[in-house]
Design a protein that fits this description.
With 254 residues, the protein is α+β, with helices and mostly antiparallel strands. It has three helices and ten strands, in the order ααββββββββββα. The strands form three sheets. It has a five-stranded mixed β-sheet.
Length: 254
């Protein structure tokens, strides 16, 4: 999560975000070398009053200042392309989540591993469940940061290739999760997709990143990355609670 005066990225929690942070560092090193060299040359030319007036061409220096930038571009393009391919398109994601943005909260559609067949008549099979996640009112005792805690967390299993389908029901929002390097717009009438494979368990926070209305700053995203078995049992127990509520206190245990 973001920390006070934290000027760098948040700690990465997926392989692709680690690659992205590496790419950032790689580009910054090259960029600083170029900026320092160019600044030095410009400053040197400004203060230097001597020049050679018969100088009209210099094949060697022209070759160097053509070849060096081309070489730098080649150094930049390989990690850039590999990161792009790592982030894009898992061919066979194991799980597909749906994230729906509303003014001003998120709702999540979460898949279940196996469809739960309730013995209660007329209720049928369930292969997913859906819930809303609103911002929680802040209190010191709750143990979540101010403006980032949610009424329901979004659970994802660790080490599983997941696909997030992101859409919106009203205006343009943006789903963003810095520690997983995820950010994509949630557009009404359109589905965008993100791929993620969380590499460690924990609680991670994000926020809507598109100015979407008066309560734009009050629709946080809190993601819990948990083990696969926890994810399964959480899904089941969540569904049980939901069923019990809707049936007015009937015990729905399997
Ligand atoms: Cu929004």
């Amino acid at each position: 999560m973001p920390s006070w005066l934290g000027l760098n990225f948040q700690d990465s929690c997926s392989f692709s975000s680690g690659e992205l942070f590496f790419l950032h560092d790689h580009v910054m090193v090259i960029m600083f070398m170029v900026v320092i060299l160019i600044t030095y040359i410009m400053f040197y030319l400004l203060v230097n009053l001597k020049f050679y007036k018969f100088l009209s061409e210099g094949t060697l220096i022209e070759t160097i200042w053509s070849m060096v930038p081309a070489f730098l571009l080649v150094i930049l393009v390989f990690p850039s392309m590999s990161t792009l391919y790592i982030m894009e398109d898992y061919k066979f994601p194991s799980l597909t989540f749906k994230v729906v943005a509303h003014q001003w909260y998120w709702s999540y559609v979460v898949p279940l591993f196996k469809s739960l067949n309730f013995s209660l008549k007329g209720l049928g099979d369930f292969s997913f469940y859906e819930y809303d996640s609103m911002m929680e009112e802040f209190s010191d005792s709750e143990g979540f940061p101010r403006l980032l805690g949610c009424s329901s967390d979004f659970f994802m299993p660790v080490g599983v290739s997941s696909r997030l389908l992101i859409t919106s029901t009203d205006v343009i929002h943006s789903f963003s999760l810095p520690s997983m390097s995820l950010k994509v717009d949630a557009l009404p009438g359109r589905i965008n997709q993100l791929f993620v494979n969380p590499s460690r368990v924990g609680l991670f926070f994000g926020q809507c990143s598109e100015i979407c209305g008066s309560n734009h700053s009050f629709m946080p995203i809190s993601v819990v990355v948990c083990s696969l078995s926890d994810f399964d049992s959480l899904g089941k127990s969540y569904l049980m609670d939901l069923m019990e509520d809707s049936l007015g206190g009937v015990d729905c245990s399997l």
